[in-house]
Amino acid sequence: MLWNLLALRQIGQRTISTASRRHFKNKVPEKQKLFQEDDEIPLYLKGGVADALLYRATMILTVGGTAYAIYELAVASFPKKQE
Amino acid sequence: MTHQSHAYHMVKPSPWPLTGALSALLMTSGLAMWFHFHSMTLLMLGLLTNTLTMYQWWRDVTRESTYQGHHTPPVQKGLRYGMILFITSEVFFFAGFFWAFYHSSLAPTPQLGGHWPPTGITPLNPLEVPLLNTSVLLASGVSITWAHHSLMENNRNQMIQALLITILLGLYFTLLQASEYFESPFTISDGIYGSTFFMATGFHGLHVIIGSTFLTICFIRQLMFHFTSKHHFGFEAAAWYWHFVDVVWLFLYISIYWWG
Predict the structure, then answer these.
(1) pLDDT over 50 (residue A15)
(2) Helix-helix angle B129-152:B233-252, to 10 degrees
(3) Does B11 contact chain A (CB < 8 Å)?
């Protein structure tokens, strides 16, 4: 990625225009259209399938983790008797 | 479709405050499990869910601003106030560590030998790596200002270059400081000198890493054409934070490395 940027720099020094390069096209207008669609999908899911997967993973880990933390608390609250 | 008749941003419901709060629970209980029961599972889970929350929360802020246009001038003004207040709170956070340092170093107890640095401590030479670190951060302050002006003047390539230089300098500082930590003749458990030195410089180092991360996000956003010459508050917030980190280092250098 770094040598791409160095190449970018050389191109910038040669050409006068600041038009989009080979590697980075301005996709902001497309994104604006996607996220302004009037489809009632919440923002955190509006990007597509990846959003839903990431959301689900985060929820499962946090809620599951909380349950595990409460379990460990319960275990720690009743110390084992030494014989 | 109904439209609002005001310029403010009424944020839509989001799951990230909940997951953030739960991740904080997992991190804190995880610390307790690590300290007392030698298990790192909860802590790792907490760090992971915290990272996931931060990523998605700030991703959504970018969607609300760059993609949906919610950051009108009054909204941006509020964000400016918010960032200033946050940085101010961080100033007070560091003030505590400086207080602790000055409390102990201005009146060294007989147990320390009645002088500062205390008996048995060989402090680091301020004219060696610490001076280099100072020049690295000062230079990064210059390069980030260059990046900002390039951005305001619509000079895309120069902005990218200057921001990259800033990030690399930040990384260089972190590596140098890590090497200093490894080579240091004293540790955090070497009395009050070690405690004040590593608490203050340690939290500073953490803030350098946070600042470098923030700058890297800005770098990626600049590559993706998110910033315009007139509207780039995310970058300005990162720049403010970076200058704050630089100033804290200058105070650290003068107080702990040089005078101390």
Answers:
(1) no
(2) 160
(3) no
